[in-house]
Amino acid sequence: MAKKVVATLKKEGGVSYARVIRAIKSDKTGAYTFKEEMVPSTLVQDTLKK
Questions:
Q1: Which of 36, 28, 29, 33 is nearest to 2 (CA)?
Q2: Cut 0.90: pTM above it
């Protein structure tokens, strides 16, 4: 299973954001690529379930 990283960032305009970084393994080459998203802190768990 790929590693998941969550970093909480400062509040901007009343909404707290987090940076979610996921390592995704390619089926073709076996190499890992990283997908980075900025999501509101309240949606972090929903984002990681994808």
A1: 33
A2: no
Q: pLDDT tens digits, residue range 28-42?
A: 999 999 999 899 888
Q: How far is CA 14 from CA 10, 23, 24, in A?
A: 10, 30, 32
Residue 26, both tokens: 């390619």
Alpha-carbon distance of 43 to 11, in angstroms, equals 15
Q: How many C-alpha atoms does 44 have within 13 Å on its Cβ side?
A: 14
DSSP the chain: ---EEEEEEEEETTEEEEEEEEEEE-TTT--EEEEEEEEEGGGHHHHHH-
